[in-house]
Amino acid sequence: MFASLRRRLKYWLARSDQRFNDRADPKVQLEQAIAESQDQHRRLKEQAANVIANQKLTEMQLNRAMNDLESINGKVRQAALMADDAAKRGDAAKAADYTRAAESFASQLVSTEKQVESLKTLHLQSTQAADQAKAAVAQNSTSLQQKLAERQKLLSQLDQAKMQEQMNTAMATLSEAVGQDVPTLNEVRAKIETRYAKALGSAELQGQTVENRMQEIEMAMNDTEAQVRLDQIKVQLGLQAGPSAALPGASAAGDAAAGADKPADAAGSPEPEGSASAG
Prior knowledge:
The protein is mainly alpha-helical. It folds into two domains: about 1-175, Helix Hairpins, CATH 1.10.287; about 210-265 and about 270-279, no CATH class. The chain is about 85% helix and about 0% strand. The chain contains seven helices and no strands. It has helices at about 1-25, 25-90, 90-175, 185-205, 210-235, 250-260, 275-279. α2 runs antiparallel to α3 and α5 packs across α6. The longest helix is centred in the middle third of the chain and has 84 residues, at about 90-175. About 10% of the residues are buried.
């Protein structure tokens, strides 16, 4: 019973974690990972600093013990010399006192020597630990710098992925319907092309009627008469050798119109040579 409940609980927890990871923003998760790496590096530096501080403390203790050892050793020697000198002078009391002092200093010397040996071993161990801590900090610092550089690369890739996803969505909306009330681009194109084709067909049918043919004939006649009139004016101005008679009766009508256009006082004036030769 309890085992089944534990399995179900683990399943729901794993499912919840999966949903969270699927919906979580990769950029936020990346920043969290970098922040965690920076915190780990900070904690590692603090631990390394403690190890190095312990190595420095042990070194100071060893130096102080070495100095004490040298001082005590000198005191033992001095006490032994003074005891021997007192004994030579026959002063047994002072000789005994100096001897006891020398023995006391000798006891301190033995204790200090043991302390120095212990501190040497401890100093060696702490030095090795400090070196390892420094190497670990340097290695972790390099790893952190690589992660920071990789973060920029991943952020750039993430932005590119988002842009590509948006482009894919935009391209999909051009060929697929967004919803029931929104037409596709292909549907709109087909509708416009259908209307344009119908308009072209209607215009073509309108161009085939009798009225349009009559209008074309009238426009052609007007264009011909206008051309004849222009030629007559050019002949009168001496710009052309002779008139052009495109239509029957056009020359007579042009002469009458030219006579009407001349001023009254110039009616008897001689015509240009071009006009006389043309007549």
